[in-house]
Amino acid sequence: MTQKEKPIYVTEPNLPPLDELIPYLEQIWKNKHLTNGGPFHQQLEDALCDYLDVPYISLFTNGTIALITALKALGVSGEVITTPYSFVATSHSLLWNDITPVFVDIDPVTLNLDPDKIDEAITSRTTAIMPVHVYGQPCEVEAIDKIAKQNNLKVIYDAAHAFGVKNHDVGILNYGDLSVLSFHATKVFNTFEGGAIVSPDEETKYYIDQLKNFGFVNETTVVETGINGKMNEFSAAVGLLQLQYIDEAIEKRKAIDVTYREGLKNIAGIRCHSQAEKWQSNYSYFPIFVEDKYPLSRDDLYEKLKTNGINARRYFYPLITEFPMYQELASIQVNNVKVAEDVAANVICLPIYPELSKQDILSVLEHICVAP
Questions:
Q1: List-wise, which residues carry N6-(pyridoxal phosphate)lysine (predicted)?
Q2: Domain boundaries in the chain?
């Protein structure tokens, strides 16, 4: 890579047009309402409910605070069954609430929680399940819902990757007791930093809105040990502008996905992640798996790409269960998460974002095709 060449990252933030953002900033200054449920905040909540076809949504400063608050809102305690194959925010939110994560293995095809393993892990201390729609690929929501109802468990979906994913007219965010989104700068839809909780009813939303504002119900009354999770007006304005371009962005991602699959289909030892046909994807990530027939190891290919200015990610590697704060848990013992370990040892997420050029896509493919 020459000094003039720009590195290719696994994702880049979707930046709204500056000339279109400036009027929003001027309006914020004019309103003199910078946070605490301002007009852009309310507009974005309404717009997201319409776009995502969900009944209620509460905006947050980021997805991690939203996860922590969702657990608090449902009164979750004891043990929660979750996945080792995710970003650490998933399980960290449990530790922040003094909840014990119980890790179970993933399905080798979907890479999400294996429902059969969930059933086996339920104990008298289990109060909830926290699955993750990994790479935007939906979990087996019907099977998880059945298990939860049979065992009187709550279900909180970490839907950080699943913005806009639908089965015909039914959005994935309508499953479970709550779904939590991330609007981080690298996500399909972003507010630079942000997140949200999708609620099924007005009462739940009202309670969540109290929790994200320190527990206030009015100017002088605090009824809960809340937190400061409020989204500011600038982030809400960015979200309103981003929402105007979201369908176009997803279509561009889809085109990149198609190009990658065509270019990789005949390379021995490279396998693309399969997609559930009934779900409308958002193409949030493009993971590939480096297997035995490929002449390089996963880590060697990763280093080769990096050396040539292609900053792919081994996502998710290492597993959450490898980190020190989880080492004492019984659920991480040998072979309990074997599928997840194998997947984490072979995965690389290739660059995918709306402004990724055809030339850059071909460059990525070329470096994978010419292995040594």
A1: 187
A2: 18-243, 246-369
The amino acid present at 105, given as its one-letter code, is D
The residues facing 103 across adjacent strands are 82
3-state SS, residue 288: strand
Please say whether the beta carbons of 302 and 346 come within 8 A: no
Q: Which helix (H) or strand (E) holds 197?
A: strand 195-199
Pick the CATH number of 18-243 from 3.30.390.30, 3.40.640.10, 3.30.420.10, 3.30.870.10: 3.40.640.10
**Residues near 112 by beta carbon (within 8 Å), at least 6 away in sequence:** 83, 106, 131, 132, 133, 134, 137, 138, 139, 140
Candidates 312, 272, 293; CA nearest to 371 is: 293
Rounded alpha-carbon distances, angstroms, from residue 189 to 15, 170, 245, 370: 10, 19, 9, 34
In terms of DSSP H, where are the helices of the chain? 18-31, 39-52, 63-73, 89-96, 115-121, 141-151, 202-211, 233-243, 246-264, 298-307, 338-346, 358-369
Q: Is the pLDDT of residue 372 over 70?
A: no
| pLDDT, tens only, 276-305 | 777 899 999 999 999 999 999 999 999 999
Rounded to whole angstroms, the Cα distance separating 15 from 9 reads 15
Encode pLDDT of 236-274 as tens digits.
999 999 999 999 999 999 999 999 999 999 999 999 999
What residues contact 361, with CB distance under 8 A and at least 6 apart? 256, 259, 260, 263, 351
Q: Is residue 187 among the annotated active site residues?
A: yes
Please identify which of the residues 154, 166, 187, 252 carries the catalytic annotation.
187
pTM of the model: 0.95
Asked if omega into 23 is within 30° of 0 (cis), the reply is no
Q: How far apart (Å, rounded) are the C-alpha atoms in residues 229 and 209?
A: 9
